[in-house]
Amino acid sequence: MSSVQLIENLRPADEIVGHYINGQVMADSGRTQAIYNPATGQVARRVALASKATVAKAIAAAAAAYPGWRRTPPMKRARIMFRFKALLERHADDIIALLTEEHGKVLDDARGEFIRGVEVVEYACGAPELLKGEHSKDVGPDIDSWSEFQPLGVVAGITPFNFPAMVPMWMYPMAIVCGNTFILKPSEKDPSAPTCIAKLLKEAGLPDGVFNIVNGDKEAVDALLTGPGVEAVSFVGSTPVAEYIYQTGTANGKRVQALGGAKNHAVVMPDAEMDNVVNALMGAAYGSCGERCMAVSVVVCVGDAVADEVVGKLSARVSGLKVGPGVDSCNEMGPLISELHYEKVRGYVDLGVAEGAELVVDGRGLTVPGHAGGFFLGGCLFDRVTPGMRIYQEEIFGPVLCVVRAQDLQEAMQLIDEHEYGNGVCIFTRDGGSARYFTDNIKIGMVGVNVPLPVPVACHSFGGWKRSLFGDLSAYGPDAIRFYTRRKTITQRWPPDSVEKAQFSFPSSQ
C-alpha cells in the first residue's frame, strides 16, 4: 500500500484513529473521543484513548527495539532521516490538508508549520557530526580522555493541538538519531497527521518499535510520567500542565523539559515605520487564530501618539480580517480548535470589557455564511489595557490583541520583565542603540528586532525563560543533543609491563 493510500485511509468520517505501536496501527476496545472539523463543528472521525495497558505495550515495544537501534551507526540513522525528509516533501500537500481539516488553520499557515518541522528533520540528518563527542590526548602521563554522548533509552513526547505536525518533529527526529526509541502522545484533538507521518517513517526504513504513538488523555500522560521504562519526557503546552509534567516526571526519576505558556509583547518605539509594524502585528497576533505560543498578544506602545497611531491603523485592519474555513485560500484566519476553547476565548473578551479595557474591535458577533456550526471568532482589539487586568496577565490563546501604553523604553521593559512568562518578545525600532540595549537586557528567552515571531531556526534551540520553561534545556537544535543523550567521560591508560608503585595522592597531571 502506498503512503498516499495510507493517508487517505484516515479520511472516512467513521474512521477511528488508533495507536501506532511496533509498526502497526491498533485501537483500544474501550474509550474513544470525537475529532471535530472546527470549520463545520461536525465530527470528522474518532480517536482511541489509550489505557495504561496500551501505554505499557508501547513502552515494551520501544524497550525491545532499543538495543538494536542503539547499536545502529549514526550514519545509518541519518540515512533513514534523509529518506524520511524526502517522503515528507513528496506527500506534503496531503499532510497539510489534514492539518487544516482537523486544526482549522488556513492552508498557508499549515504549510509554514509543516516546513518548519521538516527543517528539524533536516538538522537531524547531521547526526554523525552532532554526536562526534570530544577527545583529549595525553591529559596525563600516557593517559587519554574522551567524552561521548550515549542515548538514554525509551523517551516520550507530549505535544499540543496547535502544531500537530511541527512540535512532534521538534522532538522525535532528534531523539531517534541520538539512538533512543520514542513514544509520542499527540493532542487528541487533531491526532491524524502524526499517525500518517509515522507510516512515512516506516517507509523510510525505520525499524518497528523505534517510533510509537499512543493517543489519549490524562490517563495516557500519567502512565508515561509514572510508569517504569521511560527515561525522559518532552512537553509543550500550557504553563499549569507544564509544571505538572515537570514535577510529576522528575519525582519519578525522569529527565523532563516542559515548555509552557506565554504572553509575548511587542514594543513599538516612536521611530518605527508604522505601516510595517501594523502588517507584522496582524500576522503575529491573528495568524493561526492566535493559537500560538509565540503569538504577539500584547503591544506596548511607547508614547500616546504612537499608541493612537497603532490603534487607528490596527482597528481598520482587524475589522477587515477575512475569516472563514482554512481550506479557502482567500481567508486570513480560520476557526478556533473547539467549541470549549471558543467559549474560553470569548469569555476573556467579556472579561476585558468588564475590567474596563476599551474594546476597539469586537469579533464576538462574527458569522461565517454556510458555517453556522463552526468555531469562528472574529479578531478582537483592546486598547488601554493595564497590567492589573487578567486579560494582560493570562494567556488567552486566541485572536485577542491588547494594547498597553508606556511613556518610555524603560517602563516598557519593566512591564515585560515583571510578567510571569518569558517566552518571546520583539521590538520595532530603527535605532541600533535601543535595539542593542533591549536585546541585551530584556529577561525573555527569544527576542526579535523588527521580527515579530522570533522562532529560532532548526540549528538553534527554542525555549523561554521564567514560567515559560521548566527544565534546563530547550527544544531542538544543540540543546536536543544534550537532552536526549548522557555524557560519558572515559579516561584510559595502558600501564607499562613493569609493576608500578601504589599512588595515594589524588590523581593530577603534575
Give a nutshell description of this structure:
This protein has two domains: 3-260 and 468-489, Aldehyde Dehydrogenase, Chain A, domain 1 (3-Layer(aba) Sandwich); 264-449, Aldehyde Dehydrogenase, Chain A, domain 2 (3-Layer(aba) Sandwich), CATH 3.40.309.10. Helix content is 39%, strand content 22%. The protein has 17 helices and 23 strands.
Description:
By secondary structure, the protein is of the alpha/beta class. The chain folds into two domains: 280 residues, Aldehyde Dehydrogenase, Chain A, domain 1 (3-Layer(aba) Sandwich); 186 residues, Aldehyde Dehydrogenase, Chain A, domain 2, CATH 3.40.309. The strands form six sheets. The protein has a seven-stranded mixed β-sheet, with helices on both faces. Helix 8 links the parallel strand 9 and strand 10. The protein is globular, with a radius of gyration of 25 Å. It starts with a helix and ends in a 17-residue tail after the last strand.
What layout of secondary structure does this protein have?
Blueprint: H1 3-8, E1 16-17, E2 19-21, E3 24-26, E4 32-37, E5 42-48, H2 52-70, H3 74-90, H4 92-103, H5 107-124, H6 127-130, E6 134-140, E7 143-151, E8 154-158, H7 166-177, E9 181-185, H8 192-203, E10 211-213, H9 218-226, E11 232-236, H10 239-251, E12 255-259, E13 264-268, H11 274-286, E14 296-302, H12 304-319, H13 339-355, E15 358-361, E16 380-383, H14 390-393, E17 400-406, H15 409-418, E18 421-422, E19 424-428, H16 432-441, E20 446-449, E21 465-466, E22 469-470, H17 477-483, E23 485-493
